[in-house]
Amino acid sequence: NGHVFLFCKIKGDAKDLGLPAHNLWYFNSYDIDEAFDKYYVDPVTHRPPTCYIGFPCTKDPTWPTRLPGISNAILISDGLYDWFEKWHGTQVHERGADYEIFKDQLAKHLLDILYETVPQVKERVEYWTLGTPLTEVSYLASFHAASYGTKCDTNIFKRLNDRWTTTPHTCIPGLYMAGSDAFLPAVCGAMYGGILGASAVLGYTGSLRLVFAFLSDFARSLQEENPKMSKIEAYVKALYKFGTEPVAN
């Protein structure tokens, strides 16, 4: 699926406004399936079921000196490519009044969510702009505005797709995939995809060095937890944990 992105400029320093440094998640219903069904049918009437809210200004230590008196927020929610398909092929900023009206209607929902979740920014948003699934197509050339990596369903494991998904290898010599595109979506998928990508680049010998480097670092952390443990004991314990607790590792 694609997404809609609301970018906001906010008047005031993040510290003075009390903006959170952590990310926020909004849910508008306990029945998420029903909420998505309603939203996908009529996104103008119904709010998006979920929304990510983040404040990049709180995560950048140089922000206050570079942009004093200004903060920002980004909201990300779901948006279907089908809603915007009739404007496919048009140029940015040249998609007509109907497109802009539709964007404003979607943005209003997100602004309402922002004001309800972080009420101190109400009346302080000086500028906002909404990115749509067509933004993904225009700037990232993604297929049908797909966001955040390969679509995750059982088709990615079919033999037909084994050259294109869940593998770090590509048909271009010297080009490897990593992260979620080399394995599965989400944080753990990106982590294992990074390991697969590194292993493909390093080869078998290099991959073994990578494993030993990890075990050595793991053993060192175990020794820090228990200084009485010898180096050999720590390495054996690290090897045991590595082999028996893969999820924790």
TrEMBL record:
<keyword id="KW-0274">FAD</keyword>
<keyword id="KW-0520">NAD</keyword>
<keyword id="KW-0285">Flavoprotein</keyword>
<keyword id="KW-0521">NADP</keyword>
<protein>
    <recommendedName>
        <fullName>Amine oxidase domain-containing protein</fullName>
    </recommendedName>
</protein>
<keyword id="KW-0732">Signal</keyword>
<dbReference type="InterPro" id="IPR052206">
    <property type="entry name" value="Retinol_saturase"/>
</dbReference>
